[in-house]
Amino acid sequence: MNAFQVTLRNIKRPELSKVLEFEAPNREQAALLAAKPGFRVALVKPLSGKLKSEKSNKAISRKELIKLFRGLASMLKANISTADALLYYSQGLPDPELQSSLMNIRNRLEAGLPVHVAFAKEQKFDSTIITIIEAGADAGQLGEAFSALARRIKIEMMFASKLRTALLVPSLVILFQIGLFIYSQVYVVSQVEDTLKSVRQEPDPISVAIFSISHVVQKVWPFFVIGLIAFITALFRSAEFRQTLLILAMKRWKLLTMLVMGLRQSSYIGTLQMLYANGINLARASALSARVVLGTPMYDDFIRASQVYESSGVPFAEALKRNTNLDPQVVHMIGIGERSASLPQQLELLRDIYEEDTAAIMADFTQVINFITLAMAVVLIGFVFTGSMLPIFLMGPRMMQSGNM
User: Fold this and answer.
1) Which of 172, 208, 247, 337 could form a disulfide with 346 if both were Cys (CB 3.0 to 4.6 A apart)?
2) pTM: predicted TM-score of the whole model, two decimal places
């Protein structure tokens, strides 16, 4: 593959130009890659060595993958070849790096490489995507494979977005409320206490209790903030800490357990259905699907079940029942699919059921989190108001009585 520098000039304003760099087999292909509406190709210059703008093999974003696979699937269903589909899709893309990657894949296809090898050599797609593409190509169903990939990635993005919304915003609100509470106790309440001392008024019992809380907060807040920062840092940096914390929380909160198990089972079943429907044998499909729960206790269980099924000859449903903690409904329906030779249909039904159920559980979880956030806001704002205003209100009548005496 050769590197070219292409200079584009604006058709209406020739003084405006753009300089782009591409990898292409020849000048004509580089000019075709660089074509943009409103610009003409003024110069195509070969470059020696690698592209200056070449980046690391960064994975393509999920949103771009969804659009890419949907676009390729629609063109393949219209009987357009894979190489031409890649060419048509890459033309006009705003991202030159993605455009160059797709053209590299196309050029490998034109050179006679298998489609999954052409994608794998770009090093921007994970092993599950490459496996699905290989299986789809072998079965002559590459369009269906691309459609399945787009659907699976979209579902994963939807759940990730909902989970982020359910946790991120309430967490930020709670952190802000904690900061407001500390500020009120350290600065505002202490100023109120100083005001009472300046007018030589003894605080009443309620004010004494409020000031005592403020004194405690003033002593411990630096240690609390350090501990909170350490906790948040460990939460983001340590997968083992997150997993331990999640297990402890799941033991005490049934709704969280239902949500986590629903997400894990939905991801596993959805990936298993996608792989098996595209012609990958069940043992390999199960082992590959286990990667979606990598880092959780379920990963080893799924790998063990796949190995037992492949080596011992027991039914897949029985291997899952013995080695995993999947819901009985999942094992039962997989067993029905094996006995009635309708496993693809049963997996698709399970996938739809668990995606719907998990979405409903996530909605309930979001409502509970929002209620907890609201309750904490009421309590902390109540503390702020009580600490800053109540001693002043209680001091007023006493000052009036002392003035009348």
Assistant:
1) 337
2) 0.69
Can you name the residues that pair with 19 across neighbouring β-strands? 7
Tens-place pLDDT, residues 24-48: 667 777 777 677 778 888 888 887 6
Nearest Cα neighbor of 18 from 48, 50, 53, 49 is 53
Residue in this structure with the two tokens 């902390």, named with its chain if needed = 380
> What CATH number labels 62-154?
1.20.81.30
Domain boundaries, the chain: 2-47, 62-154, 165-405
3-state helix/strand/coil string of 301-329: HHHHHHHHHHHHCCCHHHHHHHHCCCCHH
- Find the length of the chain: 405
Distance CA 397, CA 395 (A): 6
> Judging by beta carbons within 10 Å of its beta carbon (0-12, 13-18, 19+), is residue 25 exposed, middle or buried?
middle
Is pLDDT above 50 for 200? yes
- DSSP annotation of 81 reads -
Distance CA 269, CA 324 (A): 13
Residue pair 274/292 in contact (Cβ under 8 Å)? The answer is no
